[in-house]
From TrEMBL:
<dbReference type="InterPro" id="IPR042070">
    <property type="entry name" value="PucR_C-HTH_sf"/>
</dbReference>
<dbReference type="InterPro" id="IPR051448">
    <property type="entry name" value="CdaR-like_regulators"/>
</dbReference>
<feature type="domain" description="PucR C-terminal helix-turn-helix">
    <location>
        <begin position="462"/>
        <end position="520"/>
    </location>
</feature>
<dbReference type="InterPro" id="IPR012914">
    <property type="entry name" value="PucR_dom"/>
</dbReference>
<dbReference type="Pfam" id="PF07905">
    <property type="entry name" value="PucR"/>
</dbReference>
<dbReference type="Pfam" id="PF13556">
    <property type="entry name" value="HTH_30"/>
</dbReference>
<protein>
    <recommendedName>
        <fullName>PucR family transcriptional regulator</fullName>
    </recommendedName>
</protein>
<feature type="domain" description="Purine catabolism PurC-like">
    <location>
        <begin position="10"/>
        <end position="129"/>
    </location>
</feature>
<dbReference type="InterPro" id="IPR025736">
    <property type="entry name" value="PucR_C-HTH_dom"/>
</dbReference>
Length: 542
């Protein structure tokens, strides 16, 4: 479809422009004209929106060269289309410096050699422009109808890209995150991939227009049109916007159908998490879903909801999984969700460098937690656990077990957990293991019982003092500052600790054991420790 436009060159062919002379800016005669404006004042920059053809007698500057030059500079800066001057009493001629300025910016200056009625010129051109806008609306409506028909009958989004090219005449470029750029028509003699690079050059920007395609507040794909000839028009921008909306609807529908299909395959994925599939079967499954043929390892992400998932509709859960998929695909992960009673487990296959997996996972988690969908509390509160990174994707059961362990540790620690990554929990992993196979409480009491009893009896702060003193590597000055106590008070507390724990409690081996037991105590009783340390009898009931 031919996009209706009006240029300075077109206007020169209309009525009342039979006796004119173009004295400057011949290379700018292809400038688009959106309106015609009569101006007789020297200060004009605040009155223009761009693309206006200016008609003037020159009374605003008369024979003042500096004022004339300033007037033309304002028009150039405001992106006016050109200047038409009626030669006569007010403007007998155009100074050479003004002509040079206009030539340098390809800004047309046109002289009326005979008197013309400005009112008839504006009426003629404005009538043409209004009819032109009507054509645009009609063309947009026709395009929308064709687009709707495609949405109902097509099998692949490439048909929409073909329709956009057919109507606009421009090169179409489409990019889904994590996939290669698609260019249509694929082999264009006049198009080069370098044309996709848009720098700060204004001329380049006028020949490329881009529209993001978003799902649930996150960018999923990007649609662009690239002109190989004329500038991108308003009509082009309108059909680009309509096309992006249609593509979003089609892709969202495909993702929804895809997610429903994945639900049916939940059992196969559960078997994968149990380590029951050989590497060949896993590779075949990944290939079927378009994942990387040679994945660079992966991990398991467990999302456990703190309350029942029954209050969530199936649509909410499908949207949540689609949101996760969209976010993490941008970070280089193929996601495969598995539904459990109170959790959604995501098998995350890494498609980029292994050394960057954790930083990319953190970015994805932050984007998820900050998304509008989560902020609006569409779902119950949840806790996230990221398991150990596994290079052999058939052994995802190892990552799954460590992700569950991460959730368990976070449950014990409450809000005190400093990370949702298994590999960051360090000492708590050891504590959890000991607690699983031994009576961890008895071991903790062997070291800390005298201090806990003292704090309970005298409402003291010895355990807190001990923890800070160890964290400061025995520095009394730093410990006093962090506890906000004077030196004499701290000395008294340290003497009491020596009497309860032994004078050798700062010796390396014993100190290490005590630090470990403090962490174990927090692990066992972290929820109560948020209101300082619990009474000793509560600890005995664990």
């Amino acid at each position: 479809m031919k996009t209706p436009t009006l240029t300075v060159s077109d206007i020169l062919k209309r009525k009342h422009f039979e006796h004119v002379e173009v004295v400057a800016g011949h290379n700018g005669l292809n400038r688009t004209v959106k309106w015609v404006h009569v101006v007789e004042v020297a200060k004009i920059h605040h009155l223009l929106n761009g693309k206006e053809l200016i008609l003037s007698t020159g009374v605003g500057w008369k024979e003042n060269k500096e004022l004339f030059r300033s007037f033309v500079e304002q028009l150039i800066n405001c992106d006016a289309s050109g200047l038409c001057i009626e030669i006569g009493m007010h403007t007998p001629s155009v100074p050479q410096e003004v002509i040079d300025l206009a030539n340098a910016h390809h800004f047309p200056i046109i002289l009326f050699l005979k008197e013309v009625p400005f009112v008839e010129i504006t009426q003629d051109i404005h009538t043409y422009l209004i009819n032109q806008h009507y054509e645009i609306i009609s063309g947009l409506e026709s395009y929308s109808q064709q687009l709707n028909k495609k949405l109902l009958s097509m099998d692949h989004y490439s048909e929409i890209l073909k329709l956009l090219h057919h109507y606009s005449g421009h090169q179409v470029v489409f990019k889904i995150n994590g996939r290669e750029v698609e260019i249509f028509p694929k082999y264009s003699k006049t198009f080069k991939e370098e044309q996709l690079i848009v720098d700060d050059n204004a001329a380049s920007k006028k020949r490329v227009a881009t529209q993001p395609i978003q799902f649930l507040g996150n960018e999923y794909a990007e649609l662009s049109i690239v002109s190989t000839g004329k500038e991108i028009s308003e009509f082009d921008l309108l059909i680009l916007d309509r096309t992006a909306t249609a593509l979003a609807q089609h892709l969202l529908r495909d993702l929804y159908v895809d997610e429903k299909k994945r639900v049916e395959e939940n059992e196969w994925l559960k078997s994968w998490l149990e380590g029951e599939h050989p590497i060949e079967n896993v590779f075949s499954y990944l290939a079927e879903y378009g994942a990387e043929p040679n994945p660079k390892g992966g991990t398991v992400l467990v999302v456990r909801f703190k309350s029942s998932m029954k209050q969530c509709s199936n649509l909410d859960m499908i949207y949540f999984k689609m949101l996760c998929r969209t976010i993490f695909e941008q970070q280089g992960f193929s996601t495969f969700p598995v539904d459990f009673h109170s959790s959604i487990v995501f098998i995350m296959i890494n498609n980029r460098e292994m050394k960057t997996w954790k930083s990319r996972m953190k970015i994805g988690l932050n984007s998820l937690l900050e998304s509008d969908y989560i902020q609006k509390k569409k779902l119950p509160q949840f806790v996230v656990g990221v398991g150990k990174f596994i290079e052999n994707v058939s052994h995802m059961d190892k990552s799954y077990r460590t992700a569950l362990e991460t959730i368990k540790i976070q449950h014990h620690l409450g809000g005190r957990a400093n990370s949702c990554f298994y590999e960051d929990l360090h000492i708590y992993r050891i504590i959890s293991l000991i607690h699983k196979y031994n009576d961890l409480y008895e071991v903790v009491m062997e070291y800390l019982e005298p201090v806990l009893q003292y704090d309970e009896k005298y409402n003291g702060n010895l355990l807190e003092t001990l923890k800070v003193y160890l964290a400061c590597n025995g520095s009394k000055k730093e410990t006093a500052q962090r506890l906000f106590v004077v030196r004499q008070t701290l000395y008294h507390r340290i003497q009491k600790l020596e009497s309860l724990l032994g004078e050798d409690f700062m010796n390396p081996e014993k100190r290490l054991a005590i630090e470990f037991m403090i962490k174990a105590y927090e692990y066992l009783h972290s929820q109560s420790m948020e209101n300082k340390y619990v009474q000793h009898d509560r600890l005995r009931r664990l």
